[in-house]
Amino acid sequence: MSVEEIHPSYPIWHPSTQMKTSPPPLKVVKGQGVMLELEDGRQILDCISSWWVTIHGHSHPILANALYQQAQQLEHVIFAGFTHEPAEQLARKLLNHLPKSLTRVFFSDNGSTAVEVALKMAYQYWYNQGETQRTSFIGFEGGYHGDTLGAMSVGGSTSWWQTFQLLMFSIDVVPFPATFDRDPNVEAHEAQSLETITRLLKQNPDRYAGIFIEPLVQGAAGMRLCRPQFLQELESLARSFDVLLIYDEVMTGFGRTGEFFACLKSATTPDILCLSKGLSGGCLPLAVTLATEDIYRAFYSDDIHKAFLHGHSYTGNPLACATGVASLELLEQNPEFRAIEHQHRYYLEKWLIGHPKVEQLRTCGTIAAMEVRTEDQSSYFNAIGPTLRSRFLEEGFLLRPLGNTIYIMPPYCITPNQLESIYQAIRRVLDTL
Ligand SMILES: *Cc1c(COP(=O)(O)O)cnc(C)c1O
Q1: 3-class DSSP state for residue 1?
Q2: What's the confidence (pLDDT) of residue 320?
Q3: Are 246 and 274 in contact (CB under 8 A)?
Q4: Structure pTM?
């Protein structure tokens, strides 16, 4: 082994990256609105909200100010036995935007922990009531819920984690009725999925603690959409078989689907709801898991063992909560996110519909996606992904295809001209394939 390998000049080990084969990371010195500025002066348009978190654009002055003000007041305090104004404000504000049956807000730090909390909360909800046999969950093919072991287990159908198979608990996986514009088979796929779920619930009515789903859009699986009708049927199944319905809105929350939350857009109400990514406007790590009063009451007791004994050092961090409050206010005052779906449709039509290299065009709110036709199967490991990524970068666009799925998920401050420039770049790159 060379000295260089033992003492690398660049010590950072990057997430979700094969360090040997990936191009060296680009150094970003500044972010402003939808633009990122690199050390070498290049300007890159952030078309994916930096891993789906930056909803109002980079370095937003109102978020920066909220952070600065709060940092001078109280940067952090233990959240067991103590509370503070930013957390209380954020909790109340969130509840105001959500279905009335969700009444309780449990803080944590990121999407994966929000999901771990949901898993443990659902399990213990039944356990505290003597139903200790409800040890399993139903999840969907392609579901992604985070990178910690519990979250991996509920998203266990993906092939990323075959290394860890023996460490993960098993769940029952059912088909996800993924659909796209003018999909002739959507109803058949939905029926098949609902039948599978019904069969499982009938066979083992007491086995399941809950059903886990990313409502309306499966993100990491490749921006796979399902219809609101499907969620409505799923909700009534969960109710009639008395299992908890758990929504992972870590990605779909805060305007992504064109409505404040996917549960509102689909007119459905989960028993447990996970939020993170857009919660602090992309400023700081923060997450919440919301629950109904019925769930909260199952833990409310004189017995310490019935309490939800879960917590993280940075739970409810005041800086993150203060940016969360400011971010929600920005969202309330700036309804642009509702108009982006219309623009996506217009530019898809203008630049990409009928292009021989793409199929399965689809939009949901601020998200647009399509499959690039290749010889290989559609999948995250489709070799065209990295090629497309570097071609887009050369053009000045941060797009990070999931395998052969190209998707656009911009910060909401993007202008129509900037959005159109993304479509033109995609068109240019597709034309050269
Ligand atoms: C990103 C994501 C997570 C995990 O969130 P992290 O903050 O990355 O841990 C969980 N669920 C969904 C739907 C996500 O998109």
Answers
A1: coil
A2: 98
A3: yes
A4: 0.97
CB 197 within 8 A of CB 174: yes
Instruction: Specify which residues 273 forms β-bridges with.
Output: 247, 290
**Index of the ligand 1 atom closest to the CA of residue 220:** 15
Cβ-proximal residues to 151 (8 Å cutoff; 6+ apart), any chain: 111, 112, 115, 116, 119, 145
Residue type, 126: W
* Distance of alpha carbon 216 from alpha carbon 225, whole angstroms: 5
Rounded to whole angstroms, the Cα distance separating 49 from 282 reads 9
Q: Nearest C-alpha to atom 10 of ligand 1 is from which residue? A: 145
Residue whose CA is at the smallest distance from ligand 1 atom 5 = 111
Q: Which of 266, 231, 225, 224 is nearest to 245 (CA)?
A: 231
Query: Ligand 1 pocket test: which of 51, 109, 112 has the largest number of ligand atoms within 8 Å of its C-beta?
Result: 112
User: How confident is residue 51, by pLDDT bands cut at 50, 70 and 90?
Assistant: very high
152 Cα to the center of ligand 1, angstroms: 11
Sheet of strand 28-32, all strands in order from the earlier edge strand to the far edge: 28-32, 35-38, 43-46, 397-398
Query: For residue 68, how many C-alpha atoms fall within 13 Å in the half-sphere facing its CB?
Result: 7
Q: Quick: pLDDT tens for 66-122.
A: 999 999 999 999 999 999 999 999 999 999 999 999 999 999 999 999 999 999 999
Domain 65-333 in CATH 3.40.640.10? yes
- Indicate which atom in ligand 1 lies nearest the CA of residue 248: 13
| Residues 314, 226: Cα–Cα separation, whole Å | 35
CA dihedral 98, 102, 103, 106 (to 10 degrees): -90
Name the DSSP class of 326: H
- Shortest-distance atom of ligand 1 to CA 113: 9
Query: Which atom of ligand 1 has the smallest separation from the CA of 115?
Result: 10
Q: Residue 109 in contact with residue 315, Cβ under 8 Å?
A: yes
Contact yes or no for 38/27 (Cβ under 8 A): yes
Q: Give pLDDT, residue 383.
A: 83
**Burial class (CB within 10 angstroms; exposed 0-12, middle 13-18, buried 19+) of 187:** middle
Q: What ranges do the domains of the chain cover?
A: 65-333
Ligand 1 pocket test, pick from 247, 251, 261, 280 with the greatest ligand atom count within 8 Å of Cβ, gives 251
